[in-house]
Amino acid sequence: MKQYIRIALGTTIAIISWVALLFIGSSEGWLHEPITASRSSDGFMVAAEKIIDEEPNGNIAMVLVEKGEVADSHYRSSGASVDQDTVFQVASLSKWLTAWGVMVLVEDGLIDIDAPVSQYLTRWQLPDSEFDHSKVTIRRLLSHTAGLDDSLGYNGFDTADEVQTLEDSLTRAKDASPGKSGIVKVGNEPGKEWSYSGGGYTLLQLVIEEVSGLSFADHMKQSVFQPLGMTRTTFDHAEAIEMGLAENLTLDGRSEPFRWYTALAATSLFTSPADMAKFIEIQAPDGKQSLLSREMLAMMATPHASSLGADIWGLGVMLYAPNNNGGFIIGHDGNNEPAINTAVRLDPATGDGIVVLETGSALLATKLASEWVFWKTGNVDNLAFAMMLDTMFLWILIGSIVILLIGIFIGWRKWRNVQNK
After folding, report:
1. What CATH number is given for 41-379 in this structure?
2. Domain boundaries, the chain
3. What pTM was computed for the model?
4. Could you give the CA distance from residue 32 to residue 384 in angstroms, rounded to a whole number?
5. Which pLDDT tens digit goes with each residue over 264-323?
């Protein structure tokens, strides 16, 4: 009997070791190589352009920033041409800029970041729940730790006339992503865990309007974009059309109009590659801007949420990987239907960064930005790791089954040997 217990124990240890090996190896990038051995921006651009050229269609703009200055850029289009001033809709990347809109009000003393959000609301309130709503604070909304369980996800509307009011969208969004109720409510203990909430940023959009007395788009224009010199950035869809939009290409190369949204703060910023590069530049160590203090920027890049043991979120920004300088590579990604993918990464310690805006490919921008993180730091981008999970779990299952079958075979051989004596 003891020998069978030893076999079972050995099999269990082997499975645990296999799982740990895959998890650690994937998170540490043991099987991943940088896209180029060159340490120069030229070398990275050559390798990145090769990846871009493998895509059959799409509009893409990529800008590389080194030490707070544009080092190189690349533009490719299978439709109307794009350049540094072409305006793209950037999906959830909007949340990073929205966070600045909130933090400006915090800096001005108009918002207490740790006050209950209800303190700033008159037009709408969170529906009743079993949880303490006083714990739903501005800080927790920014970091997706407020206990909201909507997991939105907005698909937008075909025309401007279909767009809901903010209050109606928060009550039940008609354009909720598939499988989501569209209801913004507290479904978990606030502050307990991270749970992505597009609805939380729609609620922050309402807070900005209530506190500033302006429309959300006007507040962002007057208080953030104009002071930063971002002249081709707006949350006003009609204004963006006048600026000149990139073609919104589908995966098969067809052109479709950009969709209209109520949830502007969460998903409908329009901006250009040049403006996003400027947004990175002003956050470099020597960057010049007077909106947010260095202490405020540092707080935004400080861990406020974790998942699977890794710090993943600050205030309005993702924490992608350690920057090897005591901080993190920060930024945000975005995906909107039919095939919009955007990604921006910034190392606040050096002013290095990358901007990738594109339509016509599901994950090209995220892939390129994640490759930049690994090339720059040798650390695996948390979003890239998350995208590997399905494959990793498949290999965990396959390996565990193989180890289990080997254990069963060894046990069966032992049993046969005993029977034949």
Report:
1. 3.40.710.10
2. 2-31+389-420, 41-379
3. 0.90
4. 11
5. 999 999 999 999 999 999 999 999 999 999 999 999 999 999 987 889 999 999 999 999
